[in-house]
Design a protein that fits this description.
The complex is a heterodimer of chains A (113) and B (116).
Chain A (H helix, E strand, L loop, with lengths): L2 E5 L2 E5 L4 E8 L5 E7 L5 E7 L5 E3 L5 E5 L4 E6 L8 E8 L6 E3 L3 E6 L1
Parallel strand pairs in A: 2-11
Antiparallel strand pairs in A: 1-3, 3-8, 4-5, 4-9, 6-7, 7-8, 9-10, 9-11
Chain B lengths: L4 E3 L2 E4 L5 E6 L6 E8 L3 E9 L2 E5 L6 E5 L5 E5 L8 E8 L11 E2 L3 E5 L1
Parallel strand pairs in B: 2-11
Antiparallel strand pairs in B: 1-3, 3-8, 4-5, 4-9, 5-6, 7-8, 9-10, 9-11
Classes of the chains: A mainly beta (113), B mainly beta (116).
Chain lengths: 113, 116
Protein backbone atom coordinates (compact mmCIF):
# COMPACT_ATOMS: atom_id res chain seq x y z
CA UNK A 1 0.00 0.00 0.00
CA UNK A 2 1.18 3.48 -0.76
CA UNK A 3 1.81 5.96 2.04
CA UNK A 4 3.32 9.38 2.57
CA UNK A 5 5.28 10.72 5.50
CA UNK A 6 5.90 14.41 5.96
CA UNK A 7 8.65 15.11 8.47
CA UNK A 8 7.78 18.04 10.71
CA UNK A 9 4.22 19.13 11.29
CA UNK A 10 5.46 22.72 11.72
CA UNK A 11 8.38 24.46 10.03
CA UNK A 12 9.42 28.03 10.78
CA UNK A 13 11.78 30.06 8.58
CA UNK A 14 12.76 33.69 8.33
CA UNK A 15 11.72 35.75 5.35
CA UNK A 16 14.36 35.32 2.65
CA UNK A 17 15.60 32.00 4.02
CA UNK A 18 15.54 28.63 2.29
CA UNK A 19 12.35 26.63 2.59
CA UNK A 20 12.71 22.85 2.82
CA UNK A 21 9.66 20.67 3.42
CA UNK A 22 10.34 16.96 3.59
CA UNK A 23 8.27 14.18 2.07
CA UNK A 24 8.98 10.46 1.91
CA UNK A 25 6.73 7.98 0.21
CA UNK A 26 6.31 4.27 -0.08
CA UNK A 27 5.06 2.76 -3.28
CA UNK A 28 5.41 -0.61 -4.95
CA UNK A 29 5.25 0.95 -8.40
CA UNK A 30 6.70 4.10 -9.94
CA UNK A 31 4.80 6.83 -8.16
CA UNK A 32 3.00 9.92 -9.27
CA UNK A 33 3.84 12.56 -6.65
CA UNK A 34 2.26 15.91 -5.90
CA UNK A 35 2.65 18.90 -3.64
CA UNK A 36 -0.40 20.98 -2.77
CA UNK A 37 -0.71 24.15 -0.70
CA UNK A 38 -3.70 25.13 1.41
CA UNK A 39 -4.22 28.67 2.65
CA UNK A 40 -6.53 29.20 5.63
CA UNK A 41 -10.17 28.45 4.86
CA UNK A 42 -9.42 27.54 1.26
CA UNK A 43 -9.12 24.43 -0.88
CA UNK A 44 -5.93 22.83 -2.16
CA UNK A 45 -3.85 24.43 -4.87
CA UNK A 46 -1.52 22.29 -6.97
CA UNK A 47 2.08 23.48 -6.61
CA UNK A 48 3.84 20.88 -8.72
CA UNK A 49 3.82 17.25 -9.76
CA UNK A 50 6.15 14.45 -10.77
CA UNK A 51 4.88 11.85 -13.19
CA UNK A 52 7.74 10.66 -15.37
CA UNK A 53 10.86 12.13 -16.91
CA UNK A 54 12.92 14.87 -15.34
CA UNK A 55 13.37 14.30 -11.65
CA UNK A 56 13.65 17.99 -10.78
CA UNK A 57 10.28 19.60 -11.25
CA UNK A 58 9.46 23.27 -11.03
CA UNK A 59 6.17 24.59 -9.85
CA UNK A 60 4.37 27.80 -9.19
CA UNK A 61 5.50 30.58 -6.87
CA UNK A 62 9.17 29.61 -7.14
CA UNK A 63 8.83 26.16 -5.60
CA UNK A 64 10.56 23.07 -6.90
CA UNK A 65 10.93 19.46 -5.83
CA UNK A 66 13.29 16.64 -6.67
CA UNK A 67 12.22 13.02 -7.03
CA UNK A 68 14.88 10.71 -5.58
CA UNK A 69 13.95 7.11 -6.13
CA UNK A 70 16.85 5.73 -4.10
CA UNK A 71 15.76 7.77 -1.09
CA UNK A 72 12.00 7.48 -1.80
CA UNK A 73 11.82 11.20 -1.27
CA UNK A 74 10.15 14.17 -2.91
CA UNK A 75 11.22 17.18 -0.86
CA UNK A 76 9.86 20.64 -1.62
CA UNK A 77 12.20 23.64 -1.69
CA UNK A 78 12.14 27.36 -2.34
CA UNK A 79 15.34 29.43 -2.26
CA UNK A 80 13.86 32.48 -0.54
CA UNK A 81 10.73 32.48 1.60
CA UNK A 82 8.12 35.20 1.34
CA UNK A 83 5.53 36.09 3.94
CA UNK A 84 2.87 34.99 1.46
CA UNK A 85 4.25 31.43 1.55
CA UNK A 86 2.83 30.91 5.04
CA UNK A 87 0.32 28.09 4.60
CA UNK A 88 -0.09 24.35 5.03
CA UNK A 89 1.63 22.10 2.51
CA UNK A 90 0.58 18.58 1.61
CA UNK A 91 2.57 15.92 -0.19
CA UNK A 92 0.51 13.25 -1.96
CA UNK A 93 1.02 10.06 -3.94
CA UNK A 94 -1.41 8.73 -6.49
CA UNK A 95 -2.51 5.16 -5.99
CA UNK A 96 -1.59 2.55 -8.54
CA UNK A 97 -5.24 1.76 -9.08
CA UNK A 98 -8.24 3.90 -8.40
CA UNK A 99 -6.66 7.29 -8.91
CA UNK A 100 -7.14 8.26 -5.30
CA UNK A 101 -4.57 10.51 -3.69
CA UNK A 102 -2.97 9.45 -0.44
CA UNK A 103 -1.89 12.53 1.49
CA UNK A 104 0.70 13.15 4.11
CA UNK A 105 -0.38 14.76 7.37
CA UNK A 106 0.68 18.20 6.19
CA UNK A 107 3.33 20.70 7.22
CA UNK A 108 2.42 24.17 8.42
CA UNK A 109 4.98 26.68 7.20
CA UNK A 110 5.46 29.82 9.25
CA UNK A 111 7.48 32.71 7.79
CA UNK A 112 8.95 35.17 10.28
CA UNK A 113 9.69 38.76 9.36
CA UNK B 1 -10.69 28.97 -17.38
CA UNK B 2 -13.01 28.42 -14.45
CA UNK B 3 -11.79 26.09 -11.74
CA UNK B 4 -13.67 23.53 -9.71
CA UNK B 5 -16.66 25.06 -8.01
CA UNK B 6 -18.51 23.81 -4.95
CA UNK B 7 -21.74 24.76 -3.25
CA UNK B 8 -22.70 25.68 -0.67
CA UNK B 9 -19.60 27.15 0.97
CA UNK B 10 -20.99 26.45 4.42
CA UNK B 11 -23.69 24.08 5.61
CA UNK B 12 -25.10 23.68 9.10
CA UNK B 13 -27.17 20.62 9.93
CA UNK B 14 -28.31 18.80 13.01
CA UNK B 15 -27.55 15.21 13.89
CA UNK B 16 -29.67 12.74 11.95
CA UNK B 17 -30.38 15.08 9.03
CA UNK B 18 -29.16 14.66 5.46
CA UNK B 19 -26.65 16.90 3.71
CA UNK B 20 -26.20 17.39 -0.03
CA UNK B 21 -23.02 18.93 -1.39
CA UNK B 22 -22.48 19.87 -5.02
CA UNK B 23 -19.47 20.11 -7.29
CA UNK B 24 -18.85 21.29 -10.83
CA UNK B 25 -15.60 20.13 -12.43
CA UNK B 26 -13.26 22.05 -14.67
CA UNK B 27 -14.64 22.17 -18.19
CA UNK B 28 -13.49 19.09 -20.11
CA UNK B 29 -12.77 17.02 -17.02
CA UNK B 30 -14.82 13.85 -16.67
CA UNK B 31 -13.52 12.59 -13.32
CA UNK B 32 -14.71 13.95 -9.98
CA UNK B 33 -13.31 13.04 -6.57
CA UNK B 34 -14.53 13.73 -3.06
CA UNK B 35 -12.30 14.04 0.01
CA UNK B 36 -13.03 14.71 3.66
CA UNK B 37 -10.71 16.92 5.70
CA UNK B 38 -11.66 16.51 9.31
CA UNK B 39 -9.77 18.05 12.21
CA UNK B 40 -7.10 15.66 13.38
CA UNK B 41 -7.83 13.09 10.67
CA UNK B 42 -6.19 14.68 7.67
CA UNK B 43 -7.36 14.34 4.09
CA UNK B 44 -9.28 11.14 3.43
CA UNK B 45 -10.48 9.88 0.06
CA UNK B 46 -14.24 9.35 -0.16
CA UNK B 47 -15.36 8.67 -3.74
CA UNK B 48 -14.30 8.79 -7.36
CA UNK B 49 -16.67 9.13 -10.31
CA UNK B 50 -15.79 9.01 -13.96
CA UNK B 51 -18.18 9.11 -16.90
CA UNK B 52 -21.12 8.74 -14.55
CA UNK B 53 -19.83 5.60 -12.84
CA UNK B 54 -18.47 5.12 -9.35
CA UNK B 55 -14.88 3.94 -9.86
CA UNK B 56 -13.52 3.76 -6.35
CA UNK B 57 -14.69 4.24 -2.82
CA UNK B 58 -12.82 5.02 0.37
CA UNK B 59 -13.30 3.48 3.77
CA UNK B 60 -16.50 5.29 4.69
CA UNK B 61 -19.90 3.91 5.70
CA UNK B 62 -22.69 3.52 3.11
CA UNK B 63 -24.48 6.62 4.40
CA UNK B 64 -21.88 8.52 2.36
CA UNK B 65 -23.01 8.29 -1.25
CA UNK B 66 -23.00 10.31 -4.38
CA UNK B 67 -23.56 10.44 -8.06
CA UNK B 68 -22.29 12.06 -11.20
CA UNK B 69 -24.59 13.69 -13.69
CA UNK B 70 -24.37 13.62 -17.52
CA UNK B 71 -22.74 17.07 -17.46
CA UNK B 72 -20.04 15.59 -15.13
CA UNK B 73 -21.09 17.60 -12.12
CA UNK B 74 -21.42 15.61 -8.94
CA UNK B 75 -23.31 15.47 -5.72
CA UNK B 76 -22.24 14.04 -2.38
CA UNK B 77 -24.97 12.94 0.00
CA UNK B 78 -24.42 12.23 3.64
CA UNK B 79 -27.37 10.60 5.40
CA UNK B 80 -28.05 10.26 9.12
CA UNK B 81 -25.48 12.91 9.97
CA UNK B 82 -23.26 12.38 12.97
CA UNK B 83 -21.28 14.95 14.90
CA UNK B 84 -18.01 13.51 13.57
CA UNK B 85 -19.11 14.24 10.00
CA UNK B 86 -18.26 17.87 10.66
CA UNK B 87 -15.43 18.61 8.24
CA UNK B 88 -14.32 20.39 5.11
CA UNK B 89 -15.43 18.41 2.08
CA UNK B 90 -13.25 18.93 -0.93
CA UNK B 91 -14.11 18.10 -4.49
CA UNK B 92 -11.47 17.64 -7.16
CA UNK B 93 -11.57 16.97 -10.88
CA UNK B 94 -9.20 15.54 -13.43
CA UNK B 95 -9.18 14.71 -17.13
CA UNK B 96 -10.63 11.37 -18.12
CA UNK B 97 -8.86 8.03 -17.92
CA UNK B 98 -7.75 8.17 -21.54
CA UNK B 99 -5.80 11.36 -20.95
CA UNK B 100 -2.10 11.26 -19.94
CA UNK B 101 -2.77 13.69 -17.11
CA UNK B 102 -5.72 11.81 -15.68
CA UNK B 103 -4.00 11.42 -12.31
CA UNK B 104 -3.60 15.17 -11.76
CA UNK B 105 -6.40 16.45 -9.56
CA UNK B 106 -7.48 20.06 -9.20
CA UNK B 107 -9.39 21.01 -6.10
CA UNK B 108 -12.29 23.29 -5.38
CA UNK B 109 -12.62 25.60 -2.38
CA UNK B 110 -14.59 23.09 -0.33
CA UNK B 111 -17.84 22.97 1.60
CA UNK B 112 -17.57 23.30 5.34
CA UNK B 113 -20.17 21.09 7.00
CA UNK B 114 -21.01 21.61 10.64
CA UNK B 115 -23.20 19.06 12.38
CA UNK B 116 -24.78 20.18 15.63
Amino acid sequence: AQSVTQLGSHVSVSEGALVLLRCNYSSSVPPYLFWYVQYPNQGLQLLLKYTTGATLVKGINGFEAEFKKSETSFHLTKPSAHMSDAAEYFCAVSMEYGNKLVFGAGTILRVKS
Amino acid sequence: EAGVTQSPTHLIKTRGQQATLRCSPISGHTSVYWYQQALGLGLQFLLWYDEGEERNRGNFPPRFSGRQFPNYSSELNVNALELEDSALYLCASSPGLAEPSHKTQYFGPGTRLLVL
